[in-house]
Design a protein that fits this description.
Order of helices and strands of chain B: HHHHHHHHHHHH
CATH class of the largest domain in chain A: Mainly Alpha
Shape of chain A: globular
Oligomer: heterodimer
Distance between the termini of chain B: 91 Å
Radius of gyration of chain B: 46 Å
Helix content of chain B: 40-55%
Number of helices of chain A: 9
Distance between the termini of chain A: 31 Å
Largest sheet of chain B: none
Helix content of chain A: 55-70%
Largest interface: A-B, 45 and 33 residues
Structural class of chain B: mainly alpha
Radius of gyration of chain A: 19 Å
CATH superfamily of the largest domain in chain A: RNA polymerase sigma factor, region 2, helix turn helix motif
CATH topology of the largest domain in chain A: Rna Polymerase Sigma Factor, Chain: A
């Protein structure tokens, strides 16, 4: 479980409110601890949502800098720093995906490698690319639900909070997202709808 | 969540790996936050029309909305006038189609027949045009008084109203109150009050009293000398004027007819004189100052 990583645990040990109080006092050390604890998670969420490593770094950076800028307005007793950052990052990803409708961010086709033993690598790359494309086939909110619950293993309540939905609505969204994910994997030839490997 | 997918599906999903985060990113973020400067996004601004797409789409939408509003005449319905637009958009005033008229031969006016009329009697006033209206009115009034004709009431009332408006407010209010009091009286008492007012006024204004006297004398003289066809009532004995005059009227129908003809002829002559002197003919306008001012 990625949320139980050492850095995360260190950050979680501290009280979030106390940390935010220190950040509001422009304590760079406290902020660096938060960055170390959450930057990787934000990067993962953003990458899986957007599919672009550079843009994922931008999203993580933007979310953390927002936390620094709005630390003075932090109200004690909120859901926590992780939930706050996740919500900001997911919203940014959704914004960027909406904007992307007007721009083509298709990755350039990968070049064939002539090195020996490359066939297996090519096949693995193909499958990875197909899996990423299947995730990209989902709608933005379905993708966000899968990323938060499957990859980040967030509890439903926290994922619902990040997507600014109530729990019932999120569970309904998640049910539809799972169905869509299965259909997308099958359509990309990664699985069949009966659960068997298609090829 | 993992249990909701089959093993095959999980294997496929797990292929979506995440590349390692840039090593210096965390340090860059902390440094940017501490220095107060934001790290510029590594992806530059989009080029070409994509960067300007929102501006272009917005401008296009505005242009479309403006064109629609102009085409539907919406600008003309605005409560404010937009310079240059409202005037252009506003619908021109409707021009009524001329009615189809059937030309009807009208009887020739009397103006052309003035030459055939009898010579102007001396009693008829000769009015000289005067550019200044009050002086003109005064001259007309004097001429009518000299001729024994009734004073033109609108002129008198106009002069009275002018004087009334020039009065101080308190005096004017007192006059209005007095007039209302008299108006509310029963007719006999009202007449008595008015007569008393007249007598008081003439007692304090000897010039006016002399004028009135002269006028009455001129009228009675004219009536006595020529059997005035203009104001037949003036020539009649005073007993015949009144509510019972119609019953007591000794005139035969023939006499009444002749009298009407004489009156009509006098009016025609008077009209001819006015036309010759270039004066405007009186219209059927409401009598100014007919009643006291309602304030």
């Amino acid at each position: 479980m990625r949320f139980s990583s050492a850095a995360r645990e260190t950050a979680a040990a501290d009280n979030d409110d106390a940390l935010m109080t220190r950040i509001a006092g422009r304590d760079a050390v406290a902020f660096s601890r938060v960055v170390d604890a959450h930057a990787a998670m934000l990067h993962r969420i953003a990458y899986r949502m957007i599919g672009d490593a550079t843009e994922a770094e931008d999203v993580a950076q933007e979310a953390l800098l927002r936390l620094w800028a709005s630390a003075e307005r932090w109200r004690p007793g909120q859901a926590g720093i992780a939930a706050w950052l996740t919500r900001v990052a997911v919203n940014q990803c959704l914004d960027r995906l909406r904007r992307r409708r007007f721009a083509s961010d298709e990755e350039p086709p990968e070049r064939a490698d002539d090195a020996p033993g490359a066939e297996a690598q090519v096949e693995e790359d193909r499958l990875r690319h197909a899996a990423r494309a299947a995730l990209g086939d989902l709608s933005q909110r379905h993708r966000a639900a899968i990323v938060l619950t499957y990859y980040e293993e967030l509890p439903n309540s926290m994922a619902a909070d990040a997507l600014e939905l109530n729990l019932k609505a999120f569970e309904s969204l998640l049910l539809r997202a799972r169905g869509a994910m299965r259909a997308a994997l099958a359509a990309r030839g990664l699985t069949s709808l009966t659960g068997e490997i298609a090829s | 969540m993992s249990a909701d997918f089959t093993a095959t599906e999980r294997a496929a999903l797990d292929r979506v790996t995440v590349p390692v985060m840039r090593p210096g990113l965390a340090a860059d973020i902390v440094a940017a936050a501490a220095s107060g400067t934001r790290v510029p996004p590594r992806r530059g601004a989009r080029s070409g029309w994509r960067a300007q797409s929102r501006v272009l789409i917005g401008a296009g939408a505005l242009l479309l909305a403006s064109a629609t509003a102009a085409a539907t005449g919406w600008f003309g319905k605005l409560p404010i006038a937009i310079p240059g637009i409202t005037r252009t958009i506003a619908a021109p005033p409707e021009v009524k189609k001329p009615k189809h008229l059937v030309r009807v031969e009208k009887p020739k006016p009397w103006i052309g027949r003035t030459e055939a009329l009898a010579p102007i009697p001396e009693a008829a006033p000769v009015l000289l045009p005067d550019p200044a209206p009050p002086a003109l009115w005064r001259a007309q009034r004097q001429a009518r008084i000299a001729a024994g004709l009734p004073v033109k009431r609108p002129l008198v009332r106009r002069a009275l109203m002018a004087r009334f408006r020039a009065m101080p407010a308190t005096q004017r209010q007192a006059a209005v109150a007095e007039w209302r009091r008299i108006k509310a009286l029963p007719p006999p008492e009202r007449k008595a009050e008015i007569a008393k007012l007249k007598a008081d006024y003439l007692a304090t204004h000897p010039r006016v009293a002399a004028q009135v006297e002269r006028r009455l004398e001129a009228r009675s003289a004219l009536a006595a000398s020529a059997g005035d066809p203009i104001k037949p009532g003036a020539a009649l004995p005073s007993g015949t004027m009144g509510p019972d005059a119609a019953r007591a009227n000794p005139l035969t129908p023939q006499e009444r007819f002749e009298r009407r003809q004489a009156r009509r002829q006098w009016w025609m002559q008077r009209r001819a004189i006015r036309l010759q002197s270039g004066q405007q003919l009186p219209r059927n306008q409401p009598d100014e100052g007919q009643g006291a001012p309602e304030r």
